[in-house]
Amino acid sequence: MAVTSIDSLLAERGGVRGRVVFLRADLNVPLRDREVSDDTRIRAALPTLRRLLAAGARVVLASHLGRPKGERRAELSLRPVAARLANLLDRGVSFCEEIVGEAAKHAVEELGDGQVLLLENLRFHPGETKNDPDFARALASLAEVYVNDAFGTAHRAHASTVGMVAHLERHAAGDLLRAELEHLRVVREPERPLLCLLGGAKVSDKISVLEALAPHADLLAVGGAMAYTFMRALGQPTGASLVEPARLEDALRVLEITEKKGRRLLLPFDHVVAREIAADAESEIRAEIPDGWIGVDIGPRSAASFAAEARRARTIFWNGPMGVFEIDGFAKGTEAVALAIASAGAHSVVGGGDSVAAVNRLGLGDRIGHLSTGGGASLEYIQGLTLPGVAALES
Ligand code: ADP
Ligand code: MG
C-alpha cells in the first residue's frame, strides 16, 4: 500500500511551511443545543492537525456533520466545533460560513503560517456526497496539499474524500487514518476465535456487513434493535420492537451463511421490555417480548452469556449498542458488554460513534485495544473491501 504518511510529507523538500494544506477530518460529533456533547472525534483529529500546524502549514480544515442533504441547516453548523477546537488547541480557530467560492478563498488568504481555518459543513453543498466534479475542483482550488484523516468517511466516494484528491499533486494520509488501518488489521486478519458483537438500530446499514462478517467471525452475537429483525425472521415474538420488515430475507440469509459455514449466531434470549422509549416508561425483564411492548435492551441472562463469550475469544470486534443506552434504565446490557470486553484478555476493537461514546461514558476507553472512530468504514475494511478514500491516496 503506497500511501504517503505525514512523516514523509513533512520530510519532503520544503515541507509544508507556508503551504495551504486541506485537511479532511472527521468532526461529525454529536451536538446538543448547538454545543458539542462528545468531543471524542475532535480529540482524535488533533495529532495530525497539531503536527501540520507545528510544521508551519496553513490548514484548511473540513468535515461533514450529520445529513443536511445539500442544504444549509443551522442546527448542523460546524461553528460549535470551531469553538471546541479552539478550546482544545488553546489558540484561535477561524471559521468560514462558505465552503467554496470568493469568501472561502479570502478566508484562506488571511491565514498565516501555523494557523487553522474551519470551513462550514461540507454537506451543506449538494456537490459533496454526489462527488460533483465542479465542487471537487472548487475545493481543491483552495489548497496546495491534501491530507485525509477522515477514516469515518473513507468508504464514501465524496468530493472531499475522492473527487478533489486528483487535483492536488501532493497528498497524504493523516496519523489517525493510518492508525485505524493498522489497528483494524487485527480484526481483518484475526487471532481466533473471533467474536463479533453487533447491535444498534440500523439493520439496513449493517446487514451487508453482517453478511460479510458471518463467514469471517467464529461467533456473531447480535443485540440492540438489530436482534428483533432476526427474531422476527425466525418467527419469534417481537411485540412493538423496532423491526425492519424489508430486511427479513437478508436476516435469514445471514443465518443460512453462518449455519453453512459452521459458525454460530447468538441472539438475546431475554429482554428488557418497555411500554415506550422514554426514561420514565414502565419496564420489565421478559424471556419473550409481549404484544404491545418494545424491546429496549438485552436482558441480564443474555448479557451474561455475551460476556462469557467475550472471555473465551482471542479477538473481539464490537459495533452498535445492545440497547437504547442513552436512557440509564436501558443501558445495562451495553454496559455489561463493554465491561466484559474491557476485562477480557483479547485483542479488542470497538467501532461506531454510539458504541465508542458508550465506552467513554463508562470510562473504559483505556482498557479497549482500539476505539475506531469510523462505523461503516471500519466495517467495510474488516471484511476486506477497498476503501475509495484510501485508494484515492494510493494513486
Ligand atoms: P454506532 O453509532 O455505534 O454504529 P448505531 O448508530 O447503529 O451504533 O446505533 C445506535 C443507536 O441504536 C442508539 O441511538 C440506540 O438508542 C439505538 N438502539 C439500540 N438498541 C435499540 C432498541 N432496542 N430499540 C431502538 N433503538 C435502539
Ligand atoms: Mg450511530
Question: How is this structure best described in words?
Answer:
- The chain is α/β, with parallel strands linked by helices and 395 residues long.
- The chain has 2 domains: 6-173, Phosphoglycerate kinase, N-terminal domain (Rossmann fold), CATH 3.40.50; 181-382, Phosphoglycerate kinase, N-terminal domain (Rossmann fold, 3-Layer(aba) Sandwich).
- Helix content is 39%, strand content 17%.
- It is built from 16 helices and 17 strands.
- The chain has helices spanning 6-11, 40-54, 79-89, 102-109, 127-130, 133-140, 159-163, 175-188, 203-216, 226-233, 248-260, 300-312, 332-343, 353-361, 375-382, 388-394, and strands at 20-24, 31-32, 35-36, 58-62, 94-96, 116-119, 145-148, 170-173, 194-198, 219-222, 264-266, 271-274, 283-286, 294-298, 315-319, 347-351, 370-372.
- The strands form 4 sheets. The protein has a 6-stranded parallel beta sheet, with helices on both faces.
- The longest helix has 15 residues, at 40-54.
- It is elongated.
- The model has no long low-confidence stretch (mean pLDDT 95).
- The structure holds adenosine-5'-diphosphate and magnesium ion.
- Adenosine-5'-diphosphate binds at residues 199-202, 224-225, 242, 295-296, 319-321, 323-324, 326, 352-355, 375.
Task: Annotate the secondary structure layout.
Elements: H1 6-11, E1 20-24, E2 31-32, E3 35-36, H2 40-54, E4 58-62, H3 79-89, E5 94-96, H4 102-109, E6 116-119, H5 127-130, H6 133-140, E7 145-148, H7 159-163, E8 170-173, H8 175-188, E9 194-198, H9 203-216, E10 219-222, H10 226-233, H11 248-260, E11 264-266, E12 271-274, E13 283-286, E14 294-298, H12 300-312, E15 315-319, H13 332-343, E16 347-351, H14 353-361, E17 370-372, H15 375-382, H16 388-394
Helix pairs in contact: 2-3, 9-11, 9-15, 10-11, 12-13
The structure holds adenosine-5'-diphosphate and magnesium ion.
